[in-house]
Write a sequence for this structure.
């Protein structure tokens, strides 16, 4: 706990310096949100319900997806740069495990970013206020926060997994965008899973991706029963541990390869 | 006139050398090549299926039927492939050159600095890959729509695609030229990429005022929307000239702006 606190303070100090950059990325990320909203407004001109979503529910879906996206980060470049530049050595010598350091710093960094971007987020909510729905109760809110926590942590682990490719090859840059696109697509971030054909949904249900977007958003919209929420949360935690173990496996092999050429 | 021809010949020769280098590069890094191309393919498949899944629930989007939108998406992918293949690892680096002072090295070369920053790394072949699925989508959509385009229409379409690539290049360079004023911004090229994504959507989804902007100030609508409309027979042939004019204007503007920005450049050390 004391270690975690120490990391927290360091990250806080480092990150309050780049406010302009945070706003810059935020404004950029608004462009796709508005394109999607415009697109859906046109689609709903002819019909009231599409794939069991009403227009307000769907717009809310994308707003919540946007918020999750603002809260999560694939720390891929950060890790790959540490590896290729050799700065990782300094981290390996520290008395905290790199993973603990990584996770805590990613989450704090995102929370800071989110706090800085809050005015803009509120402005977006105000612009779309005639469509935005609020959660139906306190229980839903608590479950939603837990689900978002799972999503954010899972996102970080996925990012670290891709970043550790840098142990073996020097370039991860161009894979990154597609990787993110596929995570978003399979996670239900670009289209709600209700639009997917049944066979694909049954495959996605066996994979961890839906915990990135679809699960937290469906919790928020009140589309899941209490039993579904509880089993979902448990499954999400299970996937976190599974991915964490897989990452540990990759990491150990990577560090070995790193030491091999580091000398 | 002869001087002009000589100059073009010289630049073409230099460009071919750059391209040859990039071919050698990708032949040497074959694993890297596949490592990049496979996720690219997944990305296109994912976006394509987003569209297909959407059409299982709705009949038309802003008046566009499924094959029509596939035609638009195919056209977008061709332009996307050309623009990214030629520019992503060239222009995207401009901000880096400026804030590190590496631009000095480029300015010392006996060629136009705009040419050098736009082409010195040749072609990024994996980034050009979307051209192939793009062409397949166009062919599929055309046969499904039963459009038997005349030679003149196809020629006009091809000319418009070339213009689109020039417009995209110019917009990209203009975005990155702002580096001379704003200093270091990692991922400045993302500004262009985000705006570029508008081009794969039907322009009708935007309001009237926004549409005017997208045809004139930021001519993203001309990139893939306009050529697609020509193929669909919704535009008169004359629109080809609008694209040509836009391409010439945006290229000249980018060229002027680059020179203007360069005047502000004073390297980093001194």
């Amino acid at each position: 706990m004391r270690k975690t606190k120490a990391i927290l303070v360091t990250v806080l100090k480092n990150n309050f310096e780049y406010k302009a950059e945070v706003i810059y990325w935020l404004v950029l990320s608004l462009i796709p949100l508005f394109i999607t909203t415009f697109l859906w407004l046109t689609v709903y001109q002819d019909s009231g319900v599409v794939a069991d979503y009403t227009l307000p529910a769907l717009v809310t879906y994308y707003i919540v997806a946007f918020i999750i996206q603002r809260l999560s980060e694939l720390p891929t470049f950060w890790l790959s740069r540490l590896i290729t530049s050799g700065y990782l050595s300094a981290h390996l010598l520290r008395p905290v495990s790199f993973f603990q350091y990584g996770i805590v710093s990613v989450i704090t960094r995102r929370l800071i970013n989110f706090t800085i971007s809050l005015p803009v987020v509120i402005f977006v909510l105000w612009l779309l206020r005639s469509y935005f729905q609020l959660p139906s109760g306190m229980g839903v809110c608590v479950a939603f926060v837990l689900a978002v926590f799972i999503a954010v942590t899972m996102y970080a682990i996925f990012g670290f997994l891709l970043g550790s490719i840098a142990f073996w090859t020097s370039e991860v840059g161009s894979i990154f965008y597609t990787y993110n696109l596929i995570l978003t697509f399979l996670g239900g971030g670009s289209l709600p899973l209700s639009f997917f054909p049944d066979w694909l949904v049954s495959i996605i249900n066996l994979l961890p991706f839906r915990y990135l977007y679809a699960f937290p958003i469906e919790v928020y919209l009140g589309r899941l029963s209490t039993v579904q929420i509880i089993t979902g949360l448990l499954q999400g935690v299970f996937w976190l541990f599974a991915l964490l173990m897989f990452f540990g496996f990759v990491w150990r092999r990577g560090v070995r390869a790193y030491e091999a050429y580091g000398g | 006139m002869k001087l002009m021809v000589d100059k073009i010949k010289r630049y073409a020769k230099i460009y071919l050398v750059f391209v040859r280098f990039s071919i050698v590069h990708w032949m040497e890094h074959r694993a890297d090549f596949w490592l990049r191309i496979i996720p690219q393919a997944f990305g296109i498949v994912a976006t394509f299926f987003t569209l297909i899944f959407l059409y299982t629930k709705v009949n038309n989007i802003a008046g566009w039927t499924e094959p029509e939108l596939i035609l638009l998406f195919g056209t977008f992918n061709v332009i996307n492939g050309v623009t990214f293949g030629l520019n992503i690892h060239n222009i995207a680096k401009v901000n880096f050159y400026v804030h590190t002072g590496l631009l000095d090295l480029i300015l010392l070369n006996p060629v136009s600095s705009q040419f050098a920053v736009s082409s010195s790394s040749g072609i990024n072949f994996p980034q050009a890959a979307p051209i192939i699925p793009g062409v397949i989508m166009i062919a599929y959509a055309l046969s499904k729509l039963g459009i038997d385009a005349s030679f003149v229409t196809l020629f006009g379409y091809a000319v418009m695609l070339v213009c689109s690539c020039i417009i995209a290049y110019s917009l990209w360079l203009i975005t990155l030229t702002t580096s001379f004023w704003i200093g270091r911004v990692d991922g400045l090229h993302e500004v262009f990429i985000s705006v570029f994504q508008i081009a794969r959507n039907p322009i009708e989804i935007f309001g009237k005022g926004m549409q005017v902007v997208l045809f004139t100030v930021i001519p993203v609508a001309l990139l893939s929307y306009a050529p697609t409309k020509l193929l669909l027979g919704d535009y008169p042939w004359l629109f080809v000239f609008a694209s040509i004019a836009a391409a010439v204007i945006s290229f000249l503007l980018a060229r002027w702006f680059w020179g203007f920005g360069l005047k502000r450049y004073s390297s980093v050390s001194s």
User: Anything to note?
Assistant: Chain B has one domain: 2-264. Residues 2-264 of chain B form one domain. Chain B touches chain A through 37 residues (CB under 8 Å). DSSP finds 14 helices and no strands in chain B.
